[in-house]
Amino acid sequence: MGIDERLIEWINKTGYPLEIFTESVLSKYDYKIINSEIYQDKENNISRELDLFASKSWDIEDFKVNLDIHLLIECKKSTKPFLLLKNNSIKEEKLSLGEIYGSNDLLSMIFLTGSPTEIDVPGKFESGFKLIQAFNTSDETIHKAVNTLLKSFNHFISKEKEYEDDYKTDNVHSIVLPILIIDAPFYALGLNKDSELEINEIETGILKHRSHLNRFENDTFPITIITKNKVEDFAKSINIFGELFFKYLVENPDYNINNLQNLEIKVRNNA
Predict the structure, then answer these.
(1) Contact present, 270 and 121 (Cβ < 8 Å)
(2) Its domain of life (predicted)?
């Protein structure tokens, strides 16, 4: 085996091909991408890396309407399955978006429960309270990925506070969505109606993560989990969501954080 084949064999065992694949898919939809984005881990007061930071903007200068969608992305490849643990308390398949506007606390949570715009979550889908890796004695891989998304999210929100005055004067909207992309078997584990363990293979999911790092006490931090084969479908869905949301903002220039009830967004799953 030549050096080229050996290098390809070695690199395919790492997570780098998944990052390259994800970047190529998002680039097709005109996302601007930063590899190895640096964020500040305020808990430990050190700088760390996020795998990918992707952004896309819609704007109309005359109307002073601007919409930015930011994707915080961690990529994990493994031959060992990932399990999303379900419980009976998580009934609804909801997702939350961090929204940045000109308000006292620039983060608001829109629960995706209505219309006119929808994020279509592709494939077989479940929500759960914990993500683990099967046949593994340590949860370090999952713990690191989840904490990276949570801490980079907090860092991003803090940076956005610098633009508070601009958001107050202009119709500027910034949405940030944390995403874990996996190249691995993915399953949901819970109890069936007979209280017996039941496992089902899925393609996407939402992890409702609890942590002392969450911005609001007793709140969950939602992380969208996407398998590799559904990355492009999800990218299309986010793009459609952005176009519909931007159209709504243009048609409703007075929309802001104080009248969130005028806009309802939901997760739709057709699987």
Answers:
(1) no
(2) Bacteria
Domain count, the chain: 1
- Domain holding 222, by residue range, is 3-268
Tokens of 167: 């958001």
Confidence grade of residue 74 (pLDDT, cut at 50, 70, 90): very high
Q: What is the 3-state secondary structure (H, E, C) of the chain?
A: CCHHHHHHHHHCCCCHHHHHHHHHHHHHCCCEEEEEEEEEECCCCEEEEEEEEEEEEEEECCCCEEEEEEEEEEEEECCCCEEEECCCCCCCCCCEEEEECCCCCCEEEEEECCCEEEEECCCCEEEECEEEECCCCCCHHHHHHHHHHHHHHHHHHHHHHHHHHHHHHCEEEEEEEEEEEEECCEEEEEECCCCCEEEEECCEEEEEECCCCCCCCCCCEEEEEEEHHHHHHHHHHHHHHHHHHHHHHHHCCCCCHHHHHHCEEEEECCC
- Residue 142 pLDDT > 80: yes
User: How many Cα atoms occupy the beta-carbon half-sphere of 246 within 13 Å?
Assistant: 20
Structure token digits, residue 44: 């430990």
Question: Could you identify the residue written with the tokens 């399990």?
Answer: 83
On the question of pLDDT at 227 being above 50, the answer is yes
Residue pLDDT, tens place only, 185-211? 999 999 988 889 999 999 999 888 888
